[in-house]
Amino acid sequence: MIYFNCDYTEGCHPDILKRLTETNMEQTIGYGMDEHCRHAADLIQKACDAPDADVHFLVGGTQTNATVIDAALKPYQGILCAETGHINVHETGAVEACGHKCITFPTNDGKIEAKQIRDYAKEHFRNGGNEHMAQPKMVYISTPTELGTIYQKKELEDIYQVCREYGMYLFVDGARMGYGLVCKQNDLTLADIAANSDVFYIGGTKVGALFGEAVVITNPELKPDFRYNIKQHGGMLAKGRLLGIQFETLFENDLYFEIAKNAIRQAERITECLTALQVPFTVTPQTNQLFVVLSDEVCDRLSEKYVLEYQEKFDETHSVMRICTSWATRQEDVSQFMEDLKEVL
Amino acid sequence: MIYFNCDYTEGCHPDILKRLTETNMEQTIGYGMDEHCRHAADLIQKACDAPDADVHFLVGGTQTNATVIDAALKPYQGILCAETGHINVHETGAVEACGHKCITFPTNDGKIEAKQIRDYAKEHFRNGGNEHMAQPKMVYISTPTELGTIYQKKELEDIYQVCREYGMYLFVDGARMGYGLVCKQNDLTLADIAANSDVFYIGGTKVGALFGEAVVITNPELKPDFRYNIKQHGGMLAKGRLLGIQFETLFENDLYFEIAKNAIRQAERITECLTALQVPFTVTPQTNQLFVVLSDEVCDRLSEKYVLEYQEKFDETHSVMRICTSWATRQEDVSQFMEDLKEVL
Amino acid sequence: MIYFNCDYTEGCHPDILKRLTETNMEQTIGYGMDEHCRHAADLIQKACDAPDADVHFLVGGTQTNATVIDAALKPYQGILCAETGHINVHETGAVEACGHKCITFPTNDGKIEAKQIRDYAKEHFRNGGNEHMAQPKMVYISTPTELGTIYQKKELEDIYQVCREYGMYLFVDGARMGYGLVCKQNDLTLADIAANSDVFYIGGTKVGALFGEAVVITNPELKPDFRYNIKQHGGMLAKGRLLGIQFETLFENDLYFEIAKNAIRQAERITECLTALQVPFTVTPQTNQLFVVLSDEVCDRLSEKYVLEYQEKFDETHSVMRICTSWATRQEDVSQFMEDLKEVL
Amino acid sequence: MIYFNCDYTEGCHPDILKRLTETNMEQTIGYGMDEHCRHAADLIQKACDAPDADVHFLVGGTQTNATVIDAALKPYQGILCAETGHINVHETGAVEACGHKCITFPTNDGKIEAKQIRDYAKEHFRNGGNEHMAQPKMVYISTPTELGTIYQKKELEDIYQVCREYGMYLFVDGARMGYGLVCKQNDLTLADIAANSDVFYIGGTKVGALFGEAVVITNPELKPDFRYNIKQHGGMLAKGRLLGIQFETLFENDLYFEIAKNAIRQAERITECLTALQVPFTVTPQTNQLFVVLSDEVCDRLSEKYVLEYQEKFDETHSVMRICTSWATRQEDVSQFMEDLKEVL
Questions:
Q1: Could you give the domains of chain D?
Q2: Strand order through the sheet with B318-324
Q3: How far is D58 from chain C (nearest CA, A)?
Q4: Mean pLDDT, to the nearest integer, of B71-100?
Q5: Does the keyword Cytoplasm apply (chains A, B, C, D) (predicted)?
Q6: What percentage of chain B reaches a pLDDT higher than 90?
Q7: CB contact under 8 A, C101 and D96
């Protein structure tokens, strides 16, 4: 079986396991206060051109989102996001479990626009605020989005501008940030994201690490006591160095970006093939996630050799399926898949 | 100034104040364990033809909704409702503050349909459940809705049927229940509601009481330890008898229904007048809340003598306004208002 | 049956019911934005000599405590209190339900000391903080305490001093404040309390109102958006004027203090009687709550005519009982009780 | 520097890294549904003689405790524990953040007794329950405790007996379970623990794994939907196989127990040495954690070569220090430490 269902089917980039093995019997202090974490944080500050940023390492995405949002908001404040946002759909209500409402905007491509945010905030604060409604205080975007699309620099700047107008924080979920930053249409750098948000995270789990997400806090209001939040949310790894070592490896010699390119290359190959075969996409492909409409018969035949991810019914006889590549996707697997696609379709 | 903005501008029906005064120096035990509460509960059980129902008295609507929902759901479970539902819009995220997600359906008239609920539940439980999403476990409807519309008996039965199919609870918010039960199109009784839901509440605050909501629990699963929930939510009034006395008064001799009729009568008079004047309604009027489109100029002129409630902008020069009557609305105030409407429009 | 079990067995002072009746058909806007609330707030600001304080009216004690504490604390912060504190013992975990830990100190008389607080804070902040523990950020005291004792001015000042040293808020629960301020040993005024705390509340429920607590916020950090907190906690009464009218009545002509004196007078009479009868007190009486050790036989005999409140077993044959007076306690009932005590003991 | 401050200073047992490396490029499905997790669960069921138990793998202890407790309790229910319990002291209020009160008992050695639990439950349920207080519903014990002591079989059985009498769950925190099960005084097996509790966990983080805790649920009431709880708490690792592989390795050929013995052996050597040197212990040593009183001068001298963990001030010139061994502690480091102790003391 070959898995194209998601970007976390393998372990990690071999360099990481090598470093873990080399350092295994080192003794360090716990909870992320060790030298590896410090070094990894330095590398990330540099990569973001944000020498004053606080960098923290957490284990997974849901945990990271809940911790950041809970740390930033007061009990009566809510977070604005796309209706397709990961926090709104696929985290089992973890944000609500911390007490906060997700206030959602409709979207076709997983992205939201500055105008949607401005209109909402303007109405809420029309008379200084409306205490009968959750107060909008943070905006959540993901780039790449859950639908594989990316924000352009101008779009990000516009959103951040609205946030500042209305005293709201901007939080960027970068679970797949590596893939976004090396794709063709991208015009953003880590430094741009650091300069145009209050807090964001760089995903490791889906881009070459065993696990781990690096939170970068640039807004001084969000920095104090963040470690208390991590600990309370169960996100403070006893052997924090495991995270430090992974991000050290990924951010030395730009390994993070190098390995991300493979996902994009393989996704492009599949996209070309599917386009030639006139398979319709529900969202225009930009990164490593492809959303296509396939007949249930085709799905059945492909499922003998490949695992794709079911998204939803398209109509009576078709489904929307996700095809996903990653840092680990093998050139030869994609070649085989393309041949089989041609045969089946 | 004459207030048509909401249905809680006056104190309470004079009979209630009389009874409070008569009983004022009685000594009773606290927290709703007194004779008045017991008597009021009996009266309500009878009115609902539900001799085994548990009846509890709480102070206000937001508190009641949060208490009922929090008592019924496990941390990872969510509540389905209309996007216009009071819990979703106007309770400052109180349901989320208890940890639960509001999962919303689009609506034009404040109501949701059995089909919407079934489709959602069916998809969630497709493979036995999906632990990456909040689990749908309760359905919330209000009747009358926040837009003044009511559920017909058949609609309620259909929704309850879906709930039972998928092991979900049905919770009916009856903040304005009195007005719904005496309006023209109504074909429901309290007994119908008791028979077709798991828990509901009968609103006092908006229908003649100083304050107070009577929660009726018919599903035995939801009964145990409910008083712990009330207490924890700050809803257990030390002098619980104040609630007992009010509901005793409202449910002896059908006072609750009698006084509700006035709101409907006055709303009908205004509706006729507005219809004659060709003022457009955004929702077809059924109970005591009327939603109309008025030009901002008309609004300004009316605001010299009347308080209506702004809902939202309709277009550049018009707004949607709510006109609301109640048990206390005076015949002569409505007559005056109608005359002024004719003049201004 | 005569009730001495608590101080909320009757309705309210007759003047309040009179005012509610007089104003009953007035139309006002809702949610505490009306003239009565504004006037009541003015009267309280004056009584506290705190013209800049924010004053809010809530319905009951548990709700008030949860709202104030939840508004003040970040998710990882805890509240220091006596192990006998109402929030720790008798609110069904309402503070924890908002996510906050009660960090408790041992006490014999319901009071805590500045030294206990300082020692704890000093240890926590030894190295700038300890993210593995809840961070102490607020101190909760009640005066009178749950055991009927009061804080002296010097004690309050010392506690407030520690709070300021460690950046912690001081919150004073005044559910029975009236009784404390008119008792013999008292050397505090409302102005002293306002000057030596960040937020406190003046209890109405137990001192002559039907219900209601007036929150006074003096620390500007705690003022913004407090109404959002009230609403989310289900504490925003639709007919907020009911609270305004009650506190107007209580704070015009010092009614609040006048009626509190009766409770103290009657408690003193009972105390003298019990002392003469050599009944042991578990706490030295100061206000309207008396805690005595009675044999279970005596309890049984008294229970034919009187309701006292069981606290806990003292030994195999004795129990600790609470005897409580109030603004409404009748001189003749106390006389009868004293005679019966003499006979039974 | 040699670290004796805790039992998580190294990475993991080399066999684990070997297996992670061997399996690194395998493709598996995510979230703990893979073959490795299934196999590890089988091995644990067998080791516990609990073929019907549900086994789940989480990342760390605080997360595991919060998830289990939150899954088991209703909002108004609390958890009984020793005042020294990890959940009460060192998890930054994570249990309270889920809404639940820790109800604590005093202890000298980290253990609580059946009698303490029975007395508390008996008083709470005296009249069928007391809705003004958090309802006791779960008992939390850790073995080994935070003070290094262990429960004997009879003690565990007695506690579980009380739990069943009062309808409470027993939850055993086994963060260091391996060390407890191989120490001299131990008379418990994993099967005994499974038979005398409702849910427990077997700690990996402190006993040879990189990270990971295996939750074993034997009570059918606690099994449904547990994966929703894990996901909501941010504990569902995308690459769940990392946990499966680690526990496979630890539970094949009893590796878990074998490596735990080293910690006990080394702790015994240090204990003998300290006893000979007449260093006082604050708790009688049983497992791998030793709590001793050392003068601050001795601490200073030792700190040149060794890291011990400060616990608290003992008196003006002495401190309580923790000395901790682990699966990874080197024979020669202990020998050196003992020599230095003899010299310094």
A1: 2-7+256-344 (3.90.1150.10), 26-253 (3.40.640.10)
A2: B289-295, B318-324, B309-315
A3: 19
A4: 98
A5: no
A6: 99
A7: yes
